[in-house]
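Appendix B. Chain record.
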Amino acid sequence: MGNAHSTLPQILLDNDRKYGRDKIAIREKDLGIWQSYSWADYCENTKKFALGLASLGFQRGDRLSVIGDNRPQLYWAQMAALCLGGIPVPLYQDAIEKELEYIIEHSEAKFIVAEDQEQVDKMLALKEKVSSMEMIIYDDPRGMRHYNQPFIKSFAEVQAVGLDFEKDHSDFFQKEVQKGSPEDTALIAYTSGTTGNPKGVVLTHSNLLTNVRLISKVEGYRDTDRVMAYLPMAWIGDSIYSLAMLLDIGFTINCPEAATTAMRDMREVGPTVVFCPPRIWENILTTIQVKMEDAAWIKQKMYAFLINVAHRVSTHQLKHQAVSLGLRFLYALGEFLVYGPLRDNLGMGRLRFAYTAGAALGPEVFQFYRSIGINLKQVYGLTETSAMCTYQPDGDVKLETVGIPCPGVEIKISEGGEVLIKSPGVFPGYYKNPEATSEALKDGWLYTGDAGIFDKDGHLLIIDRAKDVSKLANRTIFAPQFIENKLKFSPYIKEAVTLGQGQEYVTAMINIDLQSVGNWAERKNIGYTSYTDLSQRPEVYDLISNEVKKVNASLSKEEKLRGAQIRRFLILHKELDPDDAEVTRTRKIRRGFIAKKYAELIDALYSDKENVDVETKITYEDGRTANIRASLKIREAEIFQ
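Structure tokens predicted for this chain:
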């Protein structure tokens, strides 16, 4: 690891000296073949690009944005900006034009490094609107032959210019790197906030590196570890693992061919560390469940029996109880027949650590993975804390909590129940937003906006967003995210929004999972033409009604939540979409926006209506809009006393 007074570029030079061409820093799958780059390659490519940027006028303090899938060139571009004292501002590759315009303009990014023609076209549409944008640089040359504007250059061209620049400035690169200080800004990460415009979180080299070292100390990462680099580059989780941790620990990151092939490519890599937001863990489980429904009868029965065995063993282990000899034998049989092959099929056969963060993961989903032998841990952190600030020690994992504070991190609960954090990873402030900074940082503490409690063993339990936890009219506690996670354990439910603050009872708006419900409909010989058509089929309502019934049965067993069972629900005619501002890019529900947009549906849920007509505007990635109409049914749910 780099020393305590270093920056990310200074560690890069150390790694070049330490590993050179003897160790792989980054791999990329391109056209079906894995391309490997050593630490010497990483450093050389970064240096050439940095010198090219310098020759094109990039100066200390300038901002550079990257947009696209995870590619070595986009990581080198961010590192090159840091080597010159610049600041990377990564963008979500699926963000719509309006979001991109705000972030680029607000951050005053001068240089944009885009993966391919699609992303270049997005930037060209913004070029006239955003005055700060000076140059667009692309990586993939396919389709770019006729783009001859002087402000558009290829990645290779910039590197070639860098080589020419080096002839007259042989020590320029080294001098620029050495000018860097740990307190310099290393990243501006824009949070896809659930309210209003995103805020630019300023993080220093010291923030990132100190936090990386705190995490690594308790988990014991090694430079032999292999990590998948497939998360959005604009998400702090990717910046921590694929930039800061990659450099400081010296392990290898692996970029899949495309986001859609990430899970297949993972099987070829066999990573030892995996970091996934809850949505991905939920999607993997849904895929497993759908495949088992298509399996032969005997396989279904064997799978169900052995998964039940795994669940029982896991429950004993989580409670630190002894496992009987008979159960241990059955688990060993399950390991041979189901759990081991399943982990291998998922590409998780060599995993040492698996993590989930970004939102709460339902305890049922969490336990499934732990029961089949995947060391999944739920951790907690924010962009403002440089990611993880809690961890779950091996042998002390709890399904409902996010673990204990990392060494050097202080966490306390305010009188109002809000989680407050003090740590070396806490950011210095929001970019050009002193009002938001003063609201978040008070007396050295970060006010997270999350509601939480500590259990008797000192583990932190995140209940929900503090502003979202409320009570029903009957004084029953209403934590919407808790109920939504229970609903999303179903393979047929992709997303859910529960409602109830100040009301007599809880209602829900549900998104079906098109893949799993579509497969189910095919097996039942139910024809449909579109998502909207399928979602409103009576048979689908019966299917989802049964899933809601299971959730209500679970809630009825918890005394404090018995009154929060779902009374009425409807199935939405469209998927909740980041492009329509209904959820964030990290799939967090924007409750305030949904409450306004679907006010008519919410009113109908709290009336005696059995259906409601709706017309909704949808937004395409290029900013175009269209309206869709539907008549939605409202169904009563079964309640348990």
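Further analysis of this model is presented in Appendix C.
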